[in-house]
Each structure stands twice: as C-alpha cells, then as structure tokens.
Amino acid sequence: MKPTYLVNVQILRFFAAALVVFAHVGVEVGNVAARTGRSFDEIGLIDWGLGVDVFFVISGFIMYYMMHDRFGAPGAPVDFLRRRLIRIVPLYWICTTLMLAALLAAPQLINNNGLDLKHIVASYTFIPWPRADGELFPILSLGWTLNYEMLFYALFAVALLLPRRAGLTALGALFVLLILAALLAPDRFFLLKFWGNPIIGEFLLGTCAAALFIAGRRLSGAMAVALVVAGIVLAVAFFQASAYEHVWRLVTGGIPAALIVAAAVLGPALRENGLARALALGGDASYALYLTHPFTIKLFGVAGAKVGLPLVAIYAIGFVLTVLVSVGVHLWVEKPIGHWLVRKTASPKRAVRAAS
C-alpha cells in the first residue's frame, strides 16, 4: 500500500475497532453492575457497531487496491486466498479455541446457550450455523463478521479469474443476486438469508472508493473533514430515529461508513508524528483488538468487581487494557505466526521478498 493513505487507513482501522470495543466494554460493565447491585447506563449516542461497517468498507477498498492489476493473472486467485487465510485464520482459531475452553471451564461467566459438534465445526470453518438459541453466531460471537469477510474473499477470488472489467461486473452481479435470492428465500434457508444480507454491499462501496483512489481522485482537507462530519451526523441521526430497525444496515451503517472511509483514503495524508505512529500501531493491532477484547474486559471486569473498583474505573481502565493487550498479541503472536506461514506457503522467491 502506498504511504499516501497508509497512515490514514491504519488510524481509521484503530478507531473502527475502538468503537466496537467501547460498546462491548459498556456491556461488560453493565454485567458487573448487575452482579454487584449497582446501576449503570450505557452511552446510547450512536450505534457503536458502525465500526464493523467501517471495517467492511475498508476491506473492500484494500482488497481491490491490492489486486486491481492482477485480474486475469495466472495464480492470482490462489495467491489472494492464501494471503487472506494467513491473515485471518490463525488468530481467529486461537481465540475461538480460548472461548471454547472458557465455555467449558466457566460457562456461568459467558452468555451462551450450550455447545454442539456441528456448531463447533462451523465456527472453525466460517460457516454460519445456529447456536442452541437459534442465533447465527459462532462460538466467538464476534466471528459473525468474519463469516461475511470469507464470503467476500471467495467471491473476489472468483472475480480474479476474469479480466478486470468482467471480474468487477461479475462480482457486483453475484452480490446483487445473493441479496435478491435472500430476500425471496424462506427463513429455513438460513445460510442464504445470512450471506445474502444487504450488509455485504458495504464491501462493494469499498471497491468503489478504491476505484476512485486508483483513478487519482483526491479531496481537499476541508472536503475530507466535511465528509467525516456528514458520516457521523448521519450515523447518529439513523440511530436516534431507530432507522436500523426497518432500514437496511447497508444504508444506516454502510453510507456513513463509506463517507468516512472515502474521506480517509481520498483526503490528504496525515502528517507522521509520534501520535500518528502510535495510532497507526493501534491500526496494525486492530484485528487482534477486535478478537481479544472480550477476554480482556471479561477478566478485568471480574477482577475489578472483586476489589470494588468504581464502574467508571472499570470502564476506562478496561478499555485501555484491551488496547495494550491487543498490541502485545499483535507483536508477539499474530505477526510471528503470519511471517512463519508466509515463509512456509510461498514460493521461494516470494518467501525471500516476504522475509525482507
């Protein structure tokens, strides 16, 4: 990726993950309050899940930007899938295994309705499968977003088999057909209903942003700020009007996210300084932050309640701890495993380039 937008995207990735973490820390603090007989009101200004929408749009942007000149190239789909699996699977499997162990060791601390073998296998293979309560969440419930990511990667790999124009047309057509089929299908076709959720259109919004970037379109600083403000205002307005209850998330979350991502990638690059580098490191660790924060805040919530910490302290310290733990996991677990897998699976020439 080019430095003209690398810092911007990485910082945005951190803030996207932070939105999700902020919401889940609030939920856990609410659980602590309920267990200890205290009262706690979560901050309901916005749908904090907007971070997921931003991630999906960024994913569409990065995948198309990385591969825009490899459509129709021999081996491109296999190489693309290899790199994405190395990036996504190891840490997710580690965290899923930790969650499975936690469910077996301390089920009273985790909201889950039991386990069955089919659900366990589906959780590891990125297949949406109903839990005992009928909800389509994997063992690590956050993994529902990765089920959509894997769908996007699979369809994008198919598109890479074709020349760019035909591939992009095929990709868009596949997404539209999936959405239409899901709208028409009965509820018992739960896999189709899940994968055809209109939220998948957010990946296409990201590819559109990448196409603009590749074409050389840029925004002034003032226009970029205006787009960010517009995205936040729209997100707040949709949430406060409860629009998400009867309007597609592609609209209530996707449009605000697309405006914010467009501002980040098409606007001026942020000046690199200490703060920017620290936030960019948070962006590097954003995937680890997304996957590991439930463990961190759950453990700290239990410890904080035992020593009688005020709820606001559990909230603030817990949030900071999730970030610090994620950076450690990124540097000492995620990166070493990724580098090792790249060397083991790449051709000799690519392995040398990856190592360097």
Write the layout of secondary structure elements.
Blueprint: H1 3-36, H2 50-67, H3 76-105, H4 117-124, H5 144-159, H6 164-184, H7 190-195, H8 201-214, H9 221-240, H10 249-266, H11 274-284, H12 286-306, H13 311-345, H14 348-355
Helix pairs in contact: 1-2, 1-10, 1-11, 1-12, 1-13, 2-5, 2-8, 2-10, 3-5, 3-12, 3-13, 5-6, 8-10, 9-10, 12-13, 13-14
Key structural traits:
356 residues; mainly alpha; transmembrane; Acyl_transf_3_dom
Please explain how this structure is put together.
- GO terms for molecular function: acyltransferase activity.
- InterPro entries: Acyl_transf_3_dom, Acyltransferase_3.
- The chain crosses the membrane at residues 12-33, 45-67, 88-110, 136-161, 168-186, 198-215, 222-241, 247-267, 274-292, 312-333.
- Residues 9-329 form the Acyltransferase domain.
- By secondary structure, this protein is mainly α.
- It has one domain (3-355).
- It is built from 14 helices and no strands.
- The model has no long low-confidence stretch (mean pLDDT 93).
Percentage of residues assigned to helices:
over 70%
Helix-strand sequence:
HHHHHHHHHHHHHH
Backbone structural class: mainly alpha
Content of β-strand: under 5%
Mean pLDDT: 93
Q: Residue ranges: pLDDT <50 for 5 or more in a row?
A: none
Q: What count of domains describes the coordinates?
A: 1
Major beta sheet summary: none
Q: So how many helices?
A: 14
Query: Could you say which overall geometry the principal axes of the C-alpha atoms support?
Result: globular
User: What radius of gyration results from the CA coordinates?
Assistant: 21 Å
Per DSSP E runs of 2 or more residues, the count of β-strands stands at 0
Distance between the termini: 16 Å
EC number: 2.3.-.-
Enzyme class: transferase
Transmembrane segments: 12-33, 45-67, 88-110, 136-161, 168-186, 198-215, 222-241, 247-267, 274-292, 312-333
GO molecular function, one term: acyltransferase activity
